[in-house]
Amino acid sequence: MTKQELIQKRHNIDRLRENNSLSPNHAEQLEESILSSWQRSSHAKIPKDRLAAPLKDEKTDTSSLTLTRALEHCAENLKHIAEQSSMVLAVGDIGSTIIWSASSPQMRSAAESVHFIEGGQWREELVGTNALALSLKTQQSSCVFSSEHYMPSIHDWVCYAAPIIDPYSKQILGVIDLSTTWQKHNSLALLAAERCATIIQSALLEYQKQTLFIRAFSVPQVLFNGRVLVLTPRQIEILTILALCPQGLSLDTLHQALYGERKVSMGTLKAEMSQLRDVLGGMLGSRPYRLLAHVEADFLLTEQSLDAGYVDSALKLCTGVFLAKTESPFLCAWRDCLESRLSDAIFKANETDVLLKHVAHFPEAIDAVERLIELIPKTHPIHHKYLKYKNI
Question: What InterPro entries does this protein's entry cite (predicted)?
Fold first, then answer.
């Protein structure tokens, strides 16, 4: 775009914001994702005088541990990109909190003034429309130009973001954002953001050698080094228990956790462990039994998301019941605990679309239905639908 076209683009967006209401004609001038984000931001009760993102407390957060370790393999490459492009580059976790950043001299002061630095919390409900949060929300690459941003302090910015996808689990681990001043807007920068995401994903592949990934929601599945393992339901249960007990378990404790009071011999469990050791190529330790491979799992990521306060991310991860057919007393108790935490989190959730998807996966989730009734305007047709559903 020419300089004059950029100025006109910014002028058009400013005019839309000043109208304070979006008619159908106005809406056509904005991308649907930006329009939806503006509407969510206007209902988020963001302080009007907020000029910088809140900074995260120093408490330990394990939800982005995998991403942080992968960055160690490609940090210098990403720093070089930021410096050469006169941009600030930031990597956010699944909750839109920046865990790593690098800046060119031209953008360093501006980035620091709005807390576009490590620890900055860029969730939409905290700072409004921004590319980092929008990319996580839509799970697609996104560009937010000038005053499309909600906070006035970044109206002089243009930001390009792309989700970072785990090459093994195919789940979104975080997001990368490239930002500069709006006068330097270039549509090719979105490709640059996607390229940076690819660099991190390649680093993840390197870091995740000897990685065991467990899916326990919906259809259980175990991947080892990117390959699906052929396992029995009992063997998946064993690996899940060991993933939840990284310190390891004795044979007796593991037997109790797996079978409870069922009359199953120790020899049966020993045979299961022997088969698992063959499948995992020695990545199963004994005395105590423990996993020696790097372990990732959808249920662990859900737990970590709840610990970090990322309610929406936790709900997105729950695509089915955790090991629905298990009879393991340990796993049943853990599932009950997780469901209780999710229920508490649901009553704090503010994203109606996330709750609607959760109800689609769990039609019996009355807690989510009740929260939707609270959030959806009484005049909306879907409000009456869920009101009737609740009373059935």
Answer: GAF-like_dom_sf, Sig_transdc_resp-reg_C-effctor
Report whether the peptide linkage leading into residue 329 is cis, meaning its omega lies within 30 degrees of zero.
Answer: no
**Cα 193 from Cα 176, distance rounded (Å):** 7
Q: Which helix (H) or strand (E) holds 178?
A: strand 172-181
Spatial separation of the C-alpha atoms in residues 330 and 244, rounded to whole Å: 10
Locate 373 and state its tokens.
């009734």
Helix (H) or strand (E) holding 64: none
In a 10 Å sphere around its CB, with 0-12 CB exposed, 13-18 middle and 19+ buried, how is residue 157 labelled? Answer: buried
d(C-alpha 162, C-alpha 178), whole Å? 9
Asked, for residue 257, whether it belongs to a domain, the answer is yes
CATH assignment at residue 247: 1.10.10.10
* Burial (CB count within 10 angstroms: exposed 0-12, middle 13-18, buried 19+), residue 325: exposed
Residues 49 and 161 in one domain: yes
Q: Which two tokens stand for residue 169?
A: 């689990």
Scanning the structure block, which residue is given the tokens 């089915």? 320
Give the count of domains, the chain.
2
pLDDT digits (tens, 9 = 90+) for 29-43: 567 889 889 988 988
Is 215 found in the same domain as 200? no
- Say if 10 falls within a structural domain: yes
Residue 24 has pLDDT above 50, yes or no: no
Alpha-carbon span 299 to 370, nearest angstrom? 25
Residue 355 lies in a domain: no
State pTM to two decimals.
0.78
Helix (H, G, I), strand (E, B) or coil at 116: coil
Give the tens place of pLDDT for each residue, 175-214: 999 999 999 999 899 999 999 999 999 998 887 777 899 9
Residue 101 parent element (H or E): strand 98-103
Range(s) of the domain holding residue 191: 3-207
- CA distances, 286 to each of 274, 277, 328 (Å): 10, 10, 21
In a domain, 34, yes or no: yes
- The rounded distance, in Å, linking the Cα atoms of 367 and 341 is 12
Q: Hey, what amino acid is at 244?
A: L
Same domain, 199 and 222: no
